[in-house]
Design a protein that fits this description.
about 70 residues, alpha+beta, two-stranded antiparallel ribbon, 2 strands, about 40% helix, globular
């Protein structure tokens, strides 16, 4: 809900989009790299995320964790 409001999108407009689609190539690639780091380490990690949009800088804390299939 908060991400949707932050991006000025309506319900359902985020589904099927990549980080690059939502935040642009540079920021999307940075977010994606942090997600790959979680996958490589196979452990939860916390990040301070920074996005500059429309001349304004936004910061938030993000917790990311891997999900594994049951074996």
């Amino acid at each position: 809900h908060e991400l949707r409001k932050f991006l000025g999108k309506e319900n359902g407009q985020l589904i099927g989009h990549t980080d690059e689609d939502l935040f642009g190539e540079e920021i999307g690639a940075e977010i994606r790299e942090r997600e790959y780091e979680v996958i490589r380490k196979k452990a939860p990690l916390q990040f301070d995320e920074r996005v500059v949009m429309n001349g304004r800088t936004f910061w938030w804390s993000s917790s990311k964790f891997p999900l594994f299939d049951a074996k």
